[in-house]
Amino acid sequence: MKLSIIVPVYNEEENIPLLYDALVAAVTSLPHDWEAVLVDDGSKDGSMRELEKLAAMDPVHFRVVGLRRNFGQTAAIAAGIDHSDGDVIILMDADLQNDPADIPMMVQKIEGGYDLVSGWRKRRKDAFLTRTLPSNIANGLISWVTGVKLHDYGCTLKAYRREVITGFRLYGEMHRFIPVYANRVGAKIIEVPVNHHPRLHGKAKYGLERTIKVILDLVTVKFLNSYADKPIYLFGGTGIALIILSLLVLLFLFIRRIFFLVSVFSSPLFQMSTMILILGVMSILMGLIAELLVRTYHESTGTPTYTVGKTINFEKDAHSGPLS
Sign of dihedral through CA atoms 146, 148, 152, 156? Predict the structure, then answer.
């Protein structure tokens, strides 16, 4: 089993030498081959220069990917995964608030049969009002909406079997939702408390504005996770609900006209019910169009609507994600 440690880097010049020492101390005792893929996300300080030093000092274990500009943490993580070849992917931050000493424990959980080991910063060392409180609210919201109960979606320190994070692309702030995608393909998930240290060098890259992005991405993830294969359930269900509401309003107007002699057309409810009826029909039609798009996608790309955990007595046993 080979380990690939993916570390996105953005303006962490002072932390990189310390990160090297901590990583080497943590993983050299493990009986596994390993690599560290450090992705410079368009840093404006001397981070790339420090990364080049590491790569020259230990070319066997340290590999560097330099992005042309700052694309964001999720894109940097995706680049690291694409340029790695380990069986187990371990993600962590470069600021040393994540502790590389937790990696052996997480690898042990993977060896114990788990597909995803998620870190939980139980004793978080960040400012409460600007970092910890918004994060706790977001974690509760994500757990409620997705049904995947984790205390700390925002903790980058996580370990994955490669096969449970293939078959989808990362964008926006989607890296924090990888457990949701992994759960969709049947990954066995465990959450473990990990160490969290105060930042010693550099500045935090995110503030309260990130919460808005996370909420918007959560809407996307909920749709993709629940309705990507059957969008008619969402659009059609909404359309039927609107049509029923419209018919109830029209029934009320009809009864009021018969028994109380109130004109139907004099009430704004008639125009509202008509518009709601039209929206309901349009929603159902949008669902049918979305169904055609989904079927076209699966049939044209050969992408199946299932994932295989393993096969027995075939020419090649497979532990894979979605086939392509």
Answer: negative
